[in-house]
Amino acid sequence: MKYVILLLTLAPLGYGEVVPGRYIVELDGDSVAVHVARQRGRGGLRGAAAEARRSTLRGEQARARQQLGGGVTVNGAVENVGNALLVSVPDGDVERLRALPGVRRVRQVRTVKRLLDRAVVVNKVSEAWDRIGDANAGTGMKVAIIDTGVDNAHPSLRDSGLQAPDSYPRTNASSDDAFTNGKVIVARSYVDLLARRDPDASARDHVGHGTALAVIVAGSRTAAPLATIQGVAPQAYIGSYKVFGTPGYNDGATNAAILKAIDDAVADGMDVINLSLGDDIALRLDEDELVQAVEQASKAGVLVVCAAGNNGPDFGTISTPATAPSAIAVGATRNDRTFGASVEVEGLGVVLALRGNGIAPENPITGPLADVAALDGGGLACNTLPPGSLNGQIALILRGDCTFETKLGNAQRAGAAAAVIYAAALLPDAFSMDVGQATLPAESVSNADGLAMKERGGAAITMRFTIGSIPQTFDRITSFSAIGPNVDLTLKPDLVAVGQSFYVATQSYNPNGDMYSADGYAVVQGTSFSSPMAAGALALLKSARPGLTTEQYRSLLINNTTDVADFGGDDAVPQKTGAGQLNLGASIQAGAAASPALLNLGSGAAGAATLRVDNLTGAAETFTLTVEPKGGGAGPALSAAALELGPGESGESALSLDGGALPAGAYAGVVHVKGAATGTEIRVPYWYVVPGQTPAAIPLISLTASGRRNGLLRDAVYFRVTDAAGVPIAGVRPEVSVISGGGSALTITSYDPDSPGLFSATVRLGPVPQVNTFRIQAGEMNVDVKIAGQ
């Protein structure tokens, strides 16, 4: 069993890692999903209208293939959630393709890089099981996992009580039938659409990430070494769509592979799609082909759930495609217990520690605590320490500025017996460590615990590396969970769910996989894992409450939540949590649905939105509406404070907010809708912003951590300049300067046409191997960026 945080990130369009010679050729004409939506959904994707459009589209695409000419290889086509050909073509011929009649747009293929037992209690899944029986949870539902593949041989996914429906299993190659069973009913691989030739074209999971997601959604009850685990909807089927390849060959996927996988998942009749991947650099919505695919999948009646991203805690860090308006974007909260090692300090007691992925002794290590700050002034251990200065002691080191391997190597050469690395204030939680080739035993602790340990220098300390369950404060978002506003200044995430201290299944086949574990289980964290909590919840809801609309299922999930604090313990605003913490026990018995599920009142001088309430109780009901502002400030007025609705009826109340006299800032809160007869209540978050013109923050979106000495680093850091509400400031002119390291600051580039308010800084590193510090300045705000020269 191992502990790992796995973040899935997508390289930015046009200025990130692209695949030479691979393109997505978007064609004129509606996709099948859009065509059916224009026909008011008649027959769905298997009706006569859809089949007629599909036949027409294939004819048009065949003609387009012919006019592409020689030298172009068509690798695949998309028809359900887009109208596109996936091609290989010499880069010099791209302009010729763009000029062809019927071609709407040509996009270069880019790469995607890798950005449960107690969780079901925190998110009230067990309450839903009590109500319907876990033997019925998710019956008949199909959930697509678009990820690294799924290990169908894992005990949690070998449910002998399930049989695949008629026309299943479905694969792209008959040999992949071996990766299906009664639960895993689709096993498709898209490694032929990845950047490099892969040694394994099959649907096998070489990483473990997809297997973990599948088990969170629908895993059967399994007794694992540390706990008994079970997925949210154990009777649901899983569709495995592999878009990541073999470690060391194709660690990244491509947008082309993901696009084709979404297209096939819709055609395969999946009820829910889970996308635990994303790009921290979110594009404008109409420029993002994955966002458009999510929107079209939603038009086809498929519920799409996306990880919100792991680039928090700055405002404006929602990743794409979670930015899609129809995507249910899920942030992460703490679990009510964690698995980890421990550090016992004289006078302080036992605190949680996470061990690095290097040496983990079976026996405890005991010694006096030595704060490295007494030796190097900063406590970072990034430079050589005096020989013998840490003999027999346990070094206390601050996270930051250099690799864990460097820190541990310096401490070991100074004689340390082990090391404790504590978190920085900005990201205060204990963290996973990749220690590289370092052999010094090491654990991490939180910032608060590290500071408390600093006060006890010289105290006896005992480090234990065995893993056990440790209770912790929950109902707080994690420090890494991405927060809004969205790129179009709307409210995201939609809600939050447990995404930290997950004990899940993983693959035990390939030791090179990031989540490999010999016993088939790992402790993980990231919004990657809060997303399938919501996806499984949707599968359970659809099976338990059939016949509702996609919009109503969204509301049942999003609007039946509970309050959650931010990672520091203060009240959290909707920009951080959306509607709040997943509460499936409330969702399954809710008597009302709201549309929209999140109210965006807009920005500027006046805000307005209309809230529709659907009565789902089956009897006449009176719903009262009240406004609760969060974080202070004005709240909107309601045109109707009560709605009397018969069974199945809907009513509306308009919200309005005069922002003309309000100071710049965000105005957010919750509209509570409560039924008089049933007493049940739904929570609909609202958000309104008056943009400011004073820089208040410089969120770092992406950073190159190291480079060669004297090396030129193009687009070394991506960042935005925002006001206090996280809104990018138009017309700002940031500057970059050198603070230390001997490097030079060269240029700042605006990428606003592609991604709102996005800048990058290009720098050159200094001539010697050391940390280079650059300062980004905008108005009175500044942030220092550290890049290691090697």
Give a written overview of the molecule.
With 790 residues, the chain is of the alpha/beta class. It is built from 15 helices and 45 strands. The strands form ten sheets. Strands 8-9-12-7-14-15-16-24 form an eight-stranded parallel β-sheet, with helices on both faces. A seven-stranded mixed beta barrel has the order 17-18-22-21-20-19-23. Strands 2, 3, 4, 5, 6 and 13 form a six-stranded antiparallel β-sheet that branches. Helix 1 packs across helix 2. The protein is globular, with a radius of gyration of 26 Å. The model is unreliable at 1-15 (pLDDT under 50).
- Categorize the overall geometry: globular
Helix content: 10-25%
Strand arrangement across the biggest beta sheet: 8-9-12-7-14-15-16-24
| Category by helix and strand content | alpha/beta
Summarize the biggest pleated sheet.
8 strands, parallel
In DSSP terms (H or I, runs of 4 or more residues), the helix count works out at 15
Number of strands: 45
Mean pLDDT reading: 90
Distance between the termini: 33 Å
Radius of gyration: 26 Å
Unreliable parts: 1-15
Estimate the strand proportion: 25-35%
